[in-house]
Design a protein that fits this description.
The chain is of the alpha/beta class and 120 residues long. The protein has one domain (9-119): Roll (2,3-Dihydroxybiphenyl 1,2-Dioxygenase, domain 1), CATH 3.10.180.10. It is 23% helix and 35% strand. The protein contains 3 helices and 8 strands, in the order βαβββαβαβββ. A hairpin with a 6-residue loop joins strand 2 and strand 3. The mean pLDDT is 95.
Length: 120
């Protein structure tokens, strides 16, 4: 048995909130979309990473995921996000910080998902 990647699903009450975070802030591209169904969704991708973003009010209220995105240029990613989307930086991890386990991290937080950007 062989697996090649994990593709998380993130649920939003309003799918446009997910679009703003992943496409406008994190520069993912829309690989596929179907917005005219009972459960509208996007398939978003960037650098071999894929995320499914769904509009589903019930699931959005039940799930609040946290994702970690690894990078080799945390300072560059932080500079870009803090310049364009500083309002998404939470008070407890709003700067690049070396964590006790050795990774450098900062976080962003929107209405539905927490994301830690990290570099080992």
């Amino acid at each position: 048995m062989s697996f090649t990647r994990v593709v998380p699903s993130v649920f939003y009450t309003d799918i446009q909130d997910g679009f703003k975070l992943f496409v406008e802030c994190l520069n993912f591209t829309v690989e596929h979309q179907d917005l005219n169904t009972a459960q509208p969704y996007y398939v978003l991708g960037r650098n071999g990473i894929r995320i499914m973003v769904f509009q589903d009010e019930k699931s959005a209220k039940e799930h609040y995921p946290e994702l970690r995105l690894e990078t080799n240029d945390i300072e560059g990613v932080y500079a870009e996000i803090s310049a364009s989307h500083a309002h998404l930086l939470p008070p407890n991890l709003n700067k690049v910080t070396k964590r006790p386990w050795g990774a450098k991290e900062f976080a962003i937080l929107d209405k539905q998902v927490g994301i830690r950007i990290q570099q080992w």
